[in-house]
Each structure stands twice: as C-alpha cells, then as structure tokens.
Amino acid sequence: NAGVTQTPKFRILKIGQSMTLQCTQDMNHNYMYWYRQDPGMGLKLIYYSVGAGITDKGEVPNGYNVSRSTTEDFPLRLELAAPSQTSVYFCASSYSGAGAGDTQYFGPGTRLTVL
Amino acid sequence: DAKTTQPPSMDCAEGRAANLPCNHSTISGNEYVYWYRQIHSQGPQYIIHGLKNNETNEMASLIITEDRKSSTLILPHATLRDTAVYYCIVSRTGGFKTIFGAGTRLFVKA
C-alpha cells in the first residue's frame, strides 16, 4: 500500500491565485482530514470527512473548501490565496473509528508559500 | 475532546530510556490517549494508544495512571533517530476534532 499520498510537495502562489491540494489514500479508510501546520506550532484541523459526500468544518476552515466524491480522494481547494495561508498542509486518514479508536495515518505534506 | 499539557522540550542520552509525561486532567471515560511523533518536517507518525491499561508495542510503552489524568510515553532505548516532536492527544472513538498541541521536542544526544 502507498498509504496517504499528497501532491504537490511544494508550491509557490501569488496573492489571489487559487489551487487545489490533492490527497489520496489506498487503505479504504472512511475518515479523511486536512491539517495545516505553521512554523513551530502544532497541527490545526481545517476540514474533515466521514465518508464520500460528507464533509464538515474543523478549527480553521476560512479560505478553504473541500469535496469528497470518492472514498480515496479528498482534495483541498484554496480560493484567493493570502500570505496567511503560507503553511505546511497535511492530509490524514483513519479507520471508521469503531472499536479501538481512530488512529490517523498522515501523508508527507505540501509546503505552500503565498507571496 | 480533552486538552493535554506537555513539557516543551526534554533531553535524553542515547541508549537510555526516554520518559515523556502528559497531563490530561479533564479526560472523560470514553476518551483514548494517543501518542504521535513528528520527525523534522515529515507527517506525524502514530506510536501507541490506550484507554485504561498500560500498553506496549515494538516502538514504545504507554503508562496511564489509575485516575487516567496523566500518562507517560516510554521509549526504552532511545536512539538519535528518536529526536522528534512528540504529541500527546486525547480523543474519543470517532472523534473528529483531534487537537495537536505544541508537543514535546525530544533531543536524543550521543
């Protein structure tokens, strides 16, 4: 299994541009998450999904949109990029959460700079 | 989900046990204690989790106090490759709003 994959690894955007960060998992997990991590800080949840067609806001959703049309894919859309969105973005997935809890598996991250 | 408190940094000599503490005094009965670590700028990596009993796997041991208000992650023989930020998280089964705080930055020194 490849696990959780993210593309691109790095990206530089100009203020006002838009882009989509891709995330794919091949573990048949129902739950998927998007986090951002600013330098020296912990991770903050942006959006999450409990299954195809179902998404909800996390702690810091403003400026982002998500969709979940398949179990495998959970893209994150940035509209009108701002310097405050400069960060490292991590996608994660987990099992259904039944039984022993929802251990999350993380992708390698996308490093985004907005200038 | 309950919040956690961890020391910002710790040192450990290579080959010795690293004991990382975590306070979670507001934990409720259906919440698990999870530990993850993040090496440099990589994605966080799951280490271990538990509910009430102590747990051990190939990476570490987790000791949870009887009142469940605190726990300790033990890396039995720390190596230089264990230098990382360690996150203690409390999350209920199916919980979605997992809170990753600043964690503990562990430095393993030769």
Order of helices and strands of chain A: EEEEEEEEEEE
What share of residues are in beta strands of chain A? over 45%
Oligomer: heterodimer
**Main β sheet profile of chain B:** 5 strands, mixed
Helix tally of chain A? 0
Quickly count the helices of chain B: 0
Q: Supply the helix-strand structural class of chain A.
A: mainly beta
Work out the number of β strands of chain B. Answer: 9
Question: Structural class per helix/strand content of chain B?
Answer: mainly beta
Low-confidence stretches of chain B: none
Shape of chain A: globular
Instruction: Report the count of strand segments of chain A.
Output: 11
User: What is the CA-atom radius of gyration of chain B, in angstroms?
Assistant: 13 Å
Mean pLDDT of chain B: 91
Shape of chain B: globular
- Secondary-structure element sequence of chain B? EEEEEEEEE
Poorly predicted regions of chain A are none
* Proportion of residues in β-strands of chain B: over 45%
Kindly report the average pLDDT value of chain A: 91
Could you explain the architecture of this structure?
The complex is a heterodimer of chains A (115) and B (110). Chain A is mainly beta. Chain A has no helices and eleven strands. Helices cover 0% and strands 50% of the residues of chain A. In chain A, strands 2, 4, 5, 6, 9, 10 and 11 form a seven-stranded mixed sheet that branches. In chain A, a hairpin with a 2-residue loop joins strand 5 (43-51) and strand 6. Chain A is globular. Chain B has no helices and nine strands. The model of chain B has no long low-confidence stretch (mean pLDDT 91).
